[in-house]
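Appendix B. One record, verbatim.
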Amino acid sequence: MATAKKGRNASAQSKPGRSLALILIAIVALTGGMFASGHTTPRLGIDLAGGTSITLAAVPEAGQESAINKTNMDTAVSIMERRVNGLGVSEAEVQTQGTRNIIVNIPKGTNSEQAREQVGTTAKLYFRPVVATELAGGGAAPTPSASGNASGEDADKATDKATDKATDKATDGSSPSASASPSASSTTQGRALTDALKADETPSASASASAEGGASPSPSATGGTSGDADGKLQAQYAALDCTKETVRAKAGDGAKATESTVACGQNSQGQWQKYILGPAAVDGTDVDEAQAVLNTQTGAGWTVTMDFTDGGAKKFADITGQLAQKQSPQNQFAIVLDGEVVSDPYVSQALTGGNAEISGNFTQQSAQELANMLSYGALPLTFREDSVTTVTAALGGEQLQAGLIAGAIGLALVILYLLFYYRGLSFIAVLSLLVSAALTYVIMSLLGPTIGFALNLPAVCGAIVAIGITADSFIVYFERVRDEIREGRTLRPAVERAWPRARRTILVSDFVSFLAAAVLFIVTVGKVQGFAFTLGLTTVLDVVVVFLFTKPLLTLMARRKFFASGHKWSGLDPKALGAKPPLRRTRRPVHSAAGPVETKEA
């Protein structure tokens, strides 16, 4: 019925205030969140803010020159990217250069120094049984409970986490203590170390055999390490001075996971210890997930908790079961990261839970760094830092200034065109552009701390291109309204009738733009992704602004005399648009038995 239809149209036209109120509330809320977060400006990329450019060169291990190949280099790039992203550093670029180099560009800002330290760290993690240990300057090393690594229940957790490597020590815990007393003679110490090394070979073989379902070999069957190897390792241990950084850096160089080695580590008291470690029983690939946790219940401070894979959990249970039968220090396992002992908890029983905890002299930052590296895995290659270059923002600032000038000129031309062609309607268009700009700015500022988005030069280009996309949506709607007026309709009906057709066109156009931006973001890397992301974001905001601001505002303006009367400066003058004369309508009564009830247009 005509009356009911008219009621529905009136109801539809009475809601523009709600849409305008909704978008106003959204802008106020987002702006409040921006100021509350303390990030009132977008984060800038390396080309605008400056930063550090690092060149890393792959270094082959002895006899493994073929390891430097495209597959391993691409894997290293992927791991480095995940490490940096895991620290929340935005706009970091990691890419290969040639066949041996990787270039890492890290913007200046939050966590950039951590990223620089981590990006080239190999992060090879091993759990090795401790054969012998003492303070670097001589003297007995403190026990794990004294050094703060693990004791009691915490030791179980710590062990649970760390020793996927050491299927090691002999079940006959009667070997002499490996932490030789400074008063002992060198002959006695050497004999103790030799016995410990021989004993240490047995569990590795035993664990390996039992894992394959075979019988565990006896000590005599394994034979231990050769006398020459024992002597060489003892000599390295005796000469090892862990108080010197250059010595620590080379400790254990060239040792394979299946070989015993020497290493250095620092206890919670800040003292350096030196170690003889058995073959690895578990490695970092057996760690499924790691995270930094503040342990307030036991007072252990910051720790790193790990969950093992199924295979890693079995290895860990096997080795901790063997170590639990040993005497100190051979009931300890060392968690070795890139050749340095980060923790050396002892084991009192087999740990079968499939998880573990590394405790020690951790700060929040160091715990998070270790957890980050363990979570994303070890690099397949070793890298050395070839060069580090500081990138200034001067050149980027000049380019940004030029880009902003170009954007301002483009915006001014768009506004001049709107004023000349649409006249009063340009007021609605300019307000819509301002609302879109405000939303874009606030959202970019919030995305910096939340997802690590950083504004770079290509992203600025994307925002400038978006001016045209947004203006195009206004023009589509305005032209539909004008078409309706040319057909002889008055403004208010023209605004409502033009909207469905304009809406379809706008949605199709914006969908194509968003699809192009999404494809560009997926198939590209580096700075081009910044352009694609900004283009996609502004395209979505264009839909929001047109639906919640432009259309409702035009509906309200259509009720004002200036626009409704078709003023010559409104941009909706029927004469200027060449409108057809309005159709004449007559109304006739519709009769029924009860008399006239309504009128019907003829």
